[in-house]
From TrEMBL:
UniProt xrefs under SUPFAM superfamilies: NAD(P)-linked oxidoreductase (SSF51430)
Active site as annotated: 54
UniProt keywords, alphabetically: NADP, Oxidoreductase
Protein name per the record: NADP-dependent oxidoreductase domain-containing protein
Homology family: Belongs to the aldo/keto reductase family.
Pfam families with a match to the protein in the record: Aldo_ket_red
Listed InterPro entries: AKR, AKR3C2/3, Aldo/ket_reductase_CS, NAD(P)_OxRdtase_dom_sf, NADP_OxRdtase_dom
Organism: Suillus luteus UH-Slu-Lm8-n1
Annotated GO MF terms: oxidoreductase activity, acting on NAD(P)H as acceptor; oxidoreductase activity, acting on the CH-OH group of donors, NAD or NADP as acceptor
Annotated site location: Lowers pKa of active site Tyr: 81
Domain NADP-dependent oxidoreductase residue range list: 18-281
Binding-site residues, substrate: 113
Length: 300
């Protein structure tokens, strides 16, 4: 099954599964990163999540170019994130640099990496920065614009008075932060903002042995029984996110795992009871794994 899409509040569509070029890929050489991105393109990923801070946009660009004869750029959905890395850079000047590195005329999605870097002068800093993001969209440099690691307060600062609403907010999401992220997701729904997740597999591979593990094992066994094919624990957790209409940003350095991620779309649906079991096991243990999470989630 091709990767399903989610509607954005600017009238476009976004794939619901993305391949990330941060986290584990940051510990690999350029040639290895390029090979894994090319393989992800050939296996069926179309949305690639980059960032200025990852310092590997040129490698992503080279992989896009190398794959052009089989998958044209127009069929890909390329995203990058703004972080003020050079003094004096704005969202727009930084995007020009990204486009040059990527070898592209536009990105499909441009996110603000984190709110705290734009808080000079309180909410005013965020609002000024958002105006420049809107300019990037108006001038066709970015087809859609959004944010990452924004809490309810940060979103309120830019939503009021915005000409273009953020289309996406990308956050750490898994069952061990679910209770804390729910108010934010409620706000996203009110504004048609797509919730995008990273770190979704953290409970399984960054904190194994927690209350979620036996629940996932049980659901995995039930799905294998129903489907008659092997199902992985990661697929169960990513399926839980997808069934909440949460865009999953994941990654891997292994082609077999990349295929496993894409195949998640074919895994049968979890029942309402199974969805609830994951959430109640998650509520027994609160843990976050990424530094930006503290800017928007209280209590963790
Ligand atoms: N906006 C932000 O601030 C922000 C922050 C963090 C991440 N991100 C984005 O989100 C992307 C994905 O983040 P993530 O790495 O946290 O995603 P994730 O889906 O939580 O984890 C992916 C990792 O899980 C590992 N994994 C999967 N199955 C496994 C198994 N059976 N056994 C052991 N390990 C397994 C993979 O390792 P292998 O390589 O061994 O397969 C991979 O490193 C990043 O690359 C980045 O693009 C954004």
């Amino acid at each position: 099954m091709p990767i399903p899409t989610l509607p954005l509040n600017d009238g476009t569509q976004i794939p619901s599964l993305a391949f990330g070029t941060g986290t584990t890929l940051l510990h690999h050489q350029d040639a290895q990163i390029m090979a894994i991105i090319e393989s992800a393109i050939s296996i069926g990923f179309t949305l690639f999540d980059g960032a200025q801070r990852y310092k590997n946009e040129a490698v992503l660009g080279a992989a896009i170019k190398a794959s052009e004869s089989t998958v044209p750029r127009s069929e890909l959905f390329i995203s990058t994130k703004y972080a003020p890395m050079t003094p004096g850079d704005t969202a727009k000047t930084a995007l020009y640099k990204s486009l040059e590195k990527l070898g592209l005329e536009y990105v499909d999605l441009y996110l603000v990496h984190a709110p705290n870097e734009h808080m000079d002068g309180g909410g005013g800093g965020l609002r000024e920065m958002w105006k420049v993001m809107e300019e990037c969209k108006r001038e066709g440099l970015a087809r859609s614009i959004g944010v990452s690691n924004f809490g309810v307060g940060h979103l309120l600062e830019i939503v009021e008075g915005a000409q273009v609403l953020p289309a996406v907010n990308q956050l750490e999401i898994h069952p061990y932060v679910w209770d804390f992220v729910k108010p934010l997701i409620k706000m996203h729904k009110e504004h048609g903002i797509v919730t995008s997740s990273y770190g979704g597999l953290s409970p399984l591979f960054r904190a194994p042995g927690g209350p979620l593990d036996p629940v996932i094992e049980k659901i995995k066994a039930r799905l294998e029984d129903t489907w008659g094919k092997p199902v992985t624990s990661g697929q169960v957790l990513n399926k839980w996110l997808l069934q909440h209409d949460v865009l999953v940003v994941t990654t891997s350095t292994k082609a077999e795992r990349v295929r496993e991620y894409v195949d998640t779309c074919d895994v049968p649906e979890l029942t309402d009871e199974e969805m609830g079991l994951i959430e109640s096991a998650g509520a027994e243990h609160h843990q976050s794994f990424f530094k930006h999470t503290k800017y928007y989630l209280e209590g963790i």
